[in-house]
Design goal:
This protein is of the alpha+beta class and 129 residues long. The protein has one domain: Roll (Ubiquitin-like (UB roll)). Helix content is 16%, strand content 35%. It is built from 3 helices and 8 strands. A 4-stranded mixed beta sheet has the order 2-1-6-5, covered by helices on one side. The longest helix has 10 residues.
Length: 129
Amino acid sequence: MTAAELLDTLAFDRDGLIPAIAQQHDSGEVLMLAWMNRAAIDETLATGRVCYWSRSRQSLWRKGETSGQIQRLVEFRVDCDNDCLLLLVDQKGVACHTGRRNCFFTAIRDGEAKTIAEVEVDPAKLYGA
């Protein structure tokens, strides 16, 4: 099966989107979850720089285009049901818009919500706010 044939089997939702999990390729750290449409997938595979679909802006979102915290694609994977993507990436800097390394910084421990990762970069510096 060619890459194009595999992409034709993807199970996009009614809005033409598919969830994509970004994972640091060498450490296994789960960085974030975002959404991709076919155009974002095509651009990512063509350029090697990860591109998502921004549901809030209703436009393509090239990771790091405003913050400089880019993701370079190492490997593109599809799950067994063709309804979720796993992107093995090389993350430059932080992945989360809050200035943390990843977006999964809140954990439930002993019945309490705990922040388990501190801000590494002031979001105002990332986005010029």
